[in-house]
Amino acid sequence: MVASIGFGSVSTEAPSAREPDDPPLPAAPQHAGSGSGPGARPVRPLVVTGGIAACAAAASGLAVLTTLAAVGWITAPHVGIGSGLGGVLRTAGLLWLVAHHVGFSIHGVGRIGMLPLGLVFLPGALLAMAGRWVVRTGGVTRLRHVGYVAIALALPYALLAGAIAVASRTPVAAPSLWQAVTAAFLLAVVAGGLGAARGLAPWSRLAALMPARPRSIVMGMLACIAVLTAAGAVLAGGSLAMHLPEVRAASVALAPGMGGAALLLLAQLAYVPNAIVWAVAYTLGPGFAFGTGTVVAPTGSALGAVPVFPMLAALPGGERPAGPVWLPVVMLAVPYLAGVFGGIVTVRTAPTPMLEAAPLWGFAAGTAAGLLAGLTAAFSGGPLGNGRLAAVGPSGLQVGLVAVLEIGVTAALAAGGANWLILYRAARRARRKASLDTAAAPLQYAPPPPVPPPLPEEGMVTVTDETDDAGGHRIYMNPWAEDDDPLE
Question: Which element (helix H / strand E) includes 408?
Fold first, then answer.
């Protein structure tokens, strides 16, 4: 059988000859009714398998969110979920679209675009599991066919997202159709592709397939992002702890009840990634806004009235930052520390013998980290209507530009210095090893130089025995010996 998908085909029977870039694959599980023996059930085409996986992922996500919507409808009917089962289902569909970062418009209020990034993990995890299932069920054996799996999963998933967007429309709320199709397709391609790749081999083996230089840039970028994320989480958590009385007062003012308190907690957890990204933008310098004409930055804050939401009570207020004087300096130093760490990791992963090339690779890793920070900053905010809250969150352009300058330049300098140090230590170790080898070598006693033979006296003829290996016997003869013979 051959599984076709438009522009390519994937063998679902005996795999063809493996290539050097293909990782070793685990043995396929044998079960009744499958395989290639007599009476075996034929494997489904890849496009059919992808469609089944897309439906399963969408249905699983909708089931979870429908349960939450039903709990909210029972415990807090005044929140405007709707009447009856139809209202619950439409609300669940709207939440499912929000989990894919799809904005919507509310009649009389305007566009709502500040959506929780934490909800994206729900469909992302389901799509990754679906990608692994397609790989195992569809008989995919080559890493290069992961793209086919991602497309086979993303196309039906995007169509389902469009259908849910149309079905979730109400006179009060209307989700964006083009955003639903686009966001669902991109999320399915990324998450489903990663899940399919993971279904073929572990992450360590997949990373080993990358060339050394791109792998070093990716590792450096991840190192920078790890430092920024850790610092953002510490800053957001510290601000929440400092404003804990205000947070409790906001929770009491909402009076959600037992079930509503659980849903409120889940909503706040869904916005935790947004808070971390905003804290990262705060440490980078540009900060963020919560309304037109407002700013929250290390140099000071200017805020207006904010909605009653417990997490928003942790926003720093006042013209001057609260806390010790040295705290803003430490926060502003975080991006430079991230750049130093990323540059060192880049060079440690793949050092280069050319000193002038190391800063270039460090700058590439820092630039990638800065662009990723700007992208997440752009998705972490959005409008909350057409009024004063039309501008909420950090500016993706400002955050990305500042992050590239701060992290990229610092990573370039750190990579250059670390690469020089690595080469210097390697050369010093080589010299030390050579000296130790010379000292440990056994002494060679050379024979004494041969003693030159004595020069013949004047009038003497020297005759050398050429057959003597030891230098020959030298006989001195006097040609006038007969004339001087006293016996004659």
Answer: none
